Amino acid sequence: MREILGRLQELQIDRVKISRYEAFIARDEKQDARETELNNKALDLAQREKEAVEKERDHWKERADYYQNAYDILEKDRGGAGCFFKHLFTLWLASCGG
């Protein structure tokens, strides 16, 4: 009889341990889920930031190409209105810090 009681006590102790392990595993899984969600949000934010930077880069490249093209057109025309506009354009660029 004592042996049976001893075994029952051991089983009860093991059940408590199992319950604690299950609670720990559940908390750990919830933490993993939160970390996964945060990592996914961070990746999404990094991707959007990259896209915004690329868009801005493309905008400034197009703008630089536009002004380079305009300057080249004025540079080809060495006399008359072209020369006048070239000087105005150059002065405008200088005043804008460009």
Task: Give a verbal description of the structure.
The protein is mainly alpha-helical and 98 residues long. It has one domain. It is 93% helix and 0% strand. The chain has helices at residues 2-76, 80-95. Helix 1 runs antiparallel to helix 2. The radius of gyration is 36 Å and the shape is rod-shaped.
Secondary structure layout:
Elements lengths: L1 H75 L3 H16 L3
Helix pairs in contact: 1-2
Poorly predicted ranges (pLDDT <50, ≥5 residues)? Answer: none
Please give the alpha-carbon distance between the first and last residues. 97 Å
- Count of alpha and pi helical runs: 2
* DSSP E strands, number: 0
Arithmetic mean pLDDT: 86
The proportion of strand residues reads under 5%
Radius of gyration: 36 Å
Structural class: mainly alpha
Helix percent band: over 70%
Order of helices and strands: HH
Primary descriptors:
98 residues, mainly alpha, 2 helices, rod-shaped
Describe the structure concisely:
The chain is an all-alpha fold and 98 residues long. It has helices at 2-76, 80-95. The chain has one domain (2-95).
